[in-house]
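STRUCTURE:
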C-alpha cells in the first residue's frame, strides 16, 4: 500500500501580526507628511495615528510625545542622508570642485526636492516657538551638513585647488541659497507664475561659488584682485568726506 504524501498548509500570520513590525515606519511616514503639511504646532498625534491607521494608544507604544516623534522622523528621513554623503566624500578621489558639486546636487536630489525637504521650512518658521526642536535640528542636521561641506572646501584649499577662504563663512554663504530653494518649493513655489528652474538654479549657484573659490592661475593674481578692491574702497572714502565737507561749508541762503 503506497503512502500518500500529505502537505499540511502553513497558516498565514494574522493580518495584525504581519503589520505590527511595519507600524513604526507607518507612523514615521504619517508624521513626516503631517509635519510638512501642517507644521509642528499644527500637527496632532491623533491625526498622525489616524493617518497611519492605528489608534493613538498604539502610537504611544513607540513615541512618548510629539517631540520624540519629530526627532524620530528627522533621524529616519534626514540624518542617514548626511551619513551616506559623508561616507561617499571620504572615499572620493576626484577633484574637490566635483566633490563639492556632487554634495550640493545630492542634497537637492535626496533631501531638498523630496517631502523631507519641507522640514527645513518647518524648523525655520517655528524655531522661536519651539527652541528644543530647533536645537535638535541644528545639532543633528545643520552642523553635520555644514561640517561636510566645510571638509570639501578645506580639502580643496589643502590641495591647492581652491584659494584660501574663511571656511565656516563660505559654507554659510553656500548653504543659505540651498535653504532658500527648499523653502521656496514648499511655500511660494506652488503659486509662483514663474517656476524656479531647479537645475539651472543649482548650476548657477555652484558655478558662482566655484569661481569664487578658484585658485589663481599665476602667483599674485589673487593678491592683485584683493589690492585692487582695497584701492577702490580707499578711493571712495575721501570722496565721501569731501562731499560732507562741501555740504558743511555751503553758504547759508
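SEQUENCE:
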Amino acid at each position: 500500500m503506497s503512502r500518500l504524501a500529505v502537505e499540511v498548509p502553513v497558516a498565514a500570520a494574522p493580518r495584525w501580526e504581519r503589520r505590527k513590525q511595519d507600524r513604526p515606519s507607518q507612523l514615521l511616514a504619517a508624521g513626516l507628511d503631517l509635519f510638512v503639511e501642517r507644521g509642528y504646532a499644527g500637527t496632532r498625534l491623533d491625526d498622525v495615528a489616524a493617518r497611519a491607521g492605528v489608534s493613538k494608544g498604539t502610537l504611544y507604544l513607540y513615541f512618548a510625545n510629539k517631540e520624540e516623534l519629530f526627532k524620530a522622523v528627522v533621524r529616519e528621513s534626514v540624518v542617514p542622508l548626511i551619513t551616506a554623503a559623508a561616507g561617499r566624500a571620504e572615499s572620493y578621489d576626484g577633484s574637490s570642485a566635483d566633490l563639492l558639486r556632487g554634495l550640493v546636487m545630492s542634497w537637492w536630489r535626496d533631501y531638498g526636492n523630496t517631502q523631507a525637504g519641507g522640514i527645513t521650512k518647518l524648523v525655520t518658521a517655528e524655531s522661536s516657538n519651539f527652541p528644543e526642536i530647533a536645537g535638535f535640528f541644528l545639532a543633528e542636521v545643520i552642523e553635520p551638513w555644514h561640517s561636510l561641506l566645510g571638509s570639501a572646501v578645506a580639502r580643496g584649499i589643502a590641495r591647492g585647488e581652491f584659494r584660501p577662504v574663511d571656511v565656516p563663512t563660505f559654507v554659510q554663504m553656500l548653504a543659505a541659497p540651498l535653504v532658500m530653494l527648499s523653502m521656496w518649493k514648499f511655500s511660494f513655489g506652488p503659486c509662483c507664475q514663474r517656476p524656479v528652474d531647479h537645475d539651472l538654479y543649482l548650476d548657477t549657484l555652484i558655478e558662482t561659488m566655484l569661481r569664487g573659490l578658484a585658485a589663481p592661475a599665476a602667483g599674485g593674481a589673487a593678491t592683485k584682485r584683493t589690492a585692487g578692491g582695497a584701492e577702490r574702497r580707499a578711493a571712495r572714502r575721501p570722496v565721501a568726506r569731501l562731499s560732507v565737507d562741501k555740504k558743511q561749508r555751503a553758504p547759508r541762503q
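REMARK: Residues 163 and 212 are 8 Å apart (CA to CA).
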